[in-house]
Amino acid sequence: MLLRSFVASVASVVLLLGAGSATAVSITDQWFLSDDGTGSEGPDYGLRLDFTSPEMLFSASLGGSNPLLTRFDDGTATITQQMRDNATGLLWTVSYTMTGVATGGSGAGDIWHATAGTGSIFRAGEPLSPIALTGKQDDDGEVFVLRLENGILEARGWLVGGAINDWRMKATLVPEPSTVMLLGLGLVAMGIRRRS
Q1: Tens digits of per-residue pLDDT, 73-120?
Q2: In contact, 61 and 34? CB cutoff 8 Å
Q3: What is the C-alpha R_g of the chain?
Q4: Residue spans per domain, the chain
Q5: Which of 27, 111, 104 is nearest to 72 (CA)?
Q6: What's the number of CA atoms in the CB half-sphere (13 Å) around residue 194?
C-alpha cells in the first residue's frame, strides 16, 4: 500500500513537471539592435514616428540605448528596453510585442516575419508619453521582418500613423550562454598559460 501511494505520488510529480514544461515558452533567438546607419533617408534612427508633433526619431545606438529583439517559440517576438529620443537625448522605454511570427517571409532574404504588433514607447513625466505603437501590414501582410540584405541583418517594421512610421535597425545575434562560457574559459586558459 505504501509502495503504491509512493509510486502514485512520483507519477503525479512527473506529470506536473511535464505539463509545466510543455506550456513553458522558450527563447528561439535574441538580437542586439542598432541604428541602420545607411543615412539614405535622413538622420540615422531605429524608430521613426512622424505622427507625433514634432516628428520623433529614436536611436537604437546612442546614449545608453539598448533595444533587444527576442523571438519566442510560441509565435511571438518582442522589442524591449530603451531607445534615445534624438531631439532631447532622453531615454524612453519601449515595449512592443509581435504575433503571427513565422519563419521566412515575402522576400528572398527574410529569416522570419510577424503579421501583427502592438505596444508603446514611454518616459515618465513626458507630455506625449506613452505613445501607442500599432503594427501596419505591408502589401504582403507583414508588420515586421528580420532579413539578410546585402550581407547585413536588418530588422524592419511598419507602424500605423502618418506617412512614414517605421523600425529601421541592424541586428546582431546575441551569443548563446554556452558560447559565451566557452569564450570565457578560453580567455581564462590563455591567462593561466601566460603566467606559466
Answers
A1: 999 999 999 999 999 999 999 999 999 999 999 998 999 999 999 999
A2: yes
A3: 22
A4: 26-186
A5: 27
A6: 6
